[in-house]
Amino acid sequence: MGPPGAGKGTQAKVVAEHFGVPAISTGDIFRANVSRGTALGKKAQEYMDAGEYVPDEVTNLMVRARIDEPDAEPGFLLDGYPRTLSQVEELDGMIRHTGHELDAVVVLTVDPDEIVGRLLQRAEVEGRADDTEDVVRRRQEVYGEQTEPLIGVYRRRGIVHEIDGMGPVDEVTKRIFDALDVVPQS
Ligand code: ADP
Questions:
Q1: Which residue, by CA, sits nearest to atom 7 of ligand 1?
Q2: What are the strands, taking DSSP E only, across the chain?
Q3: Which atom of ligand 1 lies closest to the CA of 83?
Q4: How far is the CA of 186 from the centre of ligand 1 (A)?
Q5: Does a structural domain hold residue 185?
């Protein structure tokens, strides 16, 4: 978890690779559907472009289908889900059914002003439609209102690792591995 631009996607890939499990990014799945012009993409696009969350029913069904795929059987890392309290409950229900458990929640903490700069730069490189300054600010607001409270929920379960997300990518990765008590390869 972490606000938009905290570096979740970058770190998720490395951590998932270490554990040999898929990194499941709801943002990536939505973007792939938008670019393929699927029905799901059509539903999601207007919300994403405005910096709002896609409705829970849509997101929940999509995640449920994804974690039922065979590659997720040994485990999975979720990036960008859950983002609302209702998604937390949904996820609990889903994994009760699949027999998985939540081992850890990694929260990347960053300086919000620094992040606006990072995201605007990413907009230039990747051309993401939701990386304009107004939309970035809105996404930060929505994160604070709807997602930040989830940290407390998971903290009470004793599975939260808060990691400083500022600084070079490799250093952040090392902090995550230290917190999860794993020795990185290479
Ligand atoms: P970031 O981490 O930079 O905010 P993501 O790529 O994770 O961006 O998500 C992009 C957009 O996709 C979000 O702003 C939102 O509209 C939608 N989205 C992604 N995950 C969820 C989710 N769990 N619930 C609702 N909407 C989501």
A1: 27
A2: 23-25, 77-79, 105-109, 160-164
A3: 23
A4: 32
A5: no
Annotated catalytic residues are 8, 83, 122, 128, 139
CA angle 102, 106, 110 (to 5 degrees): 155
Ligand 1 pocket: which of 1, 31, 48 to mutate (most atoms within 8 A of CB): 48
CA 99: distance to chain centroid?
A: 22
Instruction: Report phi then psi at 108, rounded to 5.
Output: -95, 120
Query: Is the CB of residue 58 less than 8 Å from the CB of residue 15?
Result: no
Residue 26 C-alpha to ligand 1 middle, in angstroms?
Answer: 6
pLDDT, tens digit (0-9, with 9 covering 90-100), for 2-45:
999 899 999 999 999 999 999 999 999 999 999 999 999 999 99
What torsion, rounded to 10 degrees, do the Cα atoms 146, 108, 1, 129 define? 80
pLDDT per position as a tens digit, 52-71: 999 999 999 999 999 999 99
Q: How far is the CA of 80 from the centre of ligand 1 (A)?
A: 6
Total domains in the fold of the chain: 1
Atom of ligand 1 nearest to the CA of 79: 7
CATH code, domain carrying 101: 3.40.50.300
Quote the CA–CA distance of 23 and 167 in Å, as a whole number.
22
pTM of structure? 0.91
With respect to residue 3, please indicate whether it lies within any of the assigned structural domains: no
pLDDT digits (tens, 9 = 90+) for 21-31: 999 999 999 99
